[in-house]
Amino acid sequence: MKRFTLLGIALVLITGAIVTADVPFTVVVPNLDSPRGLTFGPGGRLYVAQAGTGNADGRITEIRLKKGQVTGVSDVVTGLISVGDEGETIGVSGLSAHGNGTLFAQMSLSNAATGFTSDLGHLLQVNPSGHTKAVANVGDFMYQWTTDHESLFPKDFPDSNPYGVLALPGATYVTDAGANTLNVVEPNGRQHVLAYFPNNITADATPTCVAQGPDGALYVGTLSLVDSLVFGPSAVVYRVDLSQVAPDDLPTILIVATPWARGLWPINGCAFGPDGNFYVSNLLTHPNFTGGDVVKIPFNDPNNLAKRKSLTGGTMGNGGGVAVDTDGTIYAVSGTIGKGAVVRLTSK
Question: What is the reported pTM?
């Protein structure tokens, strides 16, 4: 099973030009346990997924805001499975709000891979009162898919680690960081594979997040951790044109995702803002596992490094989810067990 933690790798740093903002961020909610996904719901309510400490204490937390100031913090869901593993915590990861406040939360890993009987790998639907319902078992579905398609990546398949989620009218999209796929889950729970993200030079792509662009296409960010540690910023944002997908058709699955932006540090979260530009959070910005950032990528010129803008100057450690309010204010998560936080960026 794929981990986001790697040791003993020879490191060579190749940096890319990027405009740096000399504006700090502000911690709005501290002391979180392994925060992951971040999303805005109705009424400007902000939700954060906490993978927990490894003691069945995963949770989804609501943050109420007024003019950028926190007016209340409360847990919507508690007691989600949380598994400690190799220095990190596995549990609830992706989070997306839809409609009247319904949340869709993606649990990582799979029961097939771990031998558990649990909500691991499940896509959960959470109503405004906090009641949860499993919509689909993405983890086990993709573990079987990678078993059936082991030839795509023999050194790592079978594997599944559903991670990012995007809920849209009539469909929910999930990125599987273990299977290297973009999947769709229909309202009735039926699942299909839409796109496969190709292997990098030294390891696989590891798609972590998905957002819908102003053109209606889906944009998927990859971690590309090993390549970034060895060769410098190697993460890629892929574009998937939904008019071109052919669900479960392998020849189309293998070619439908096209590179849109290259040369980024490992991406762990992404979102579009009301300005139409793309924002990615970086897990790290240095090959010694330090740094972390949120980077603004101009939608109309995504590969112009001079036009990309670092919003924290690489000072936001362990970047995770990112979300942009309707007024353009950017929020992100950072940190690990007990030291996680939701932060507000003071630059737009």
Answer: 0.93
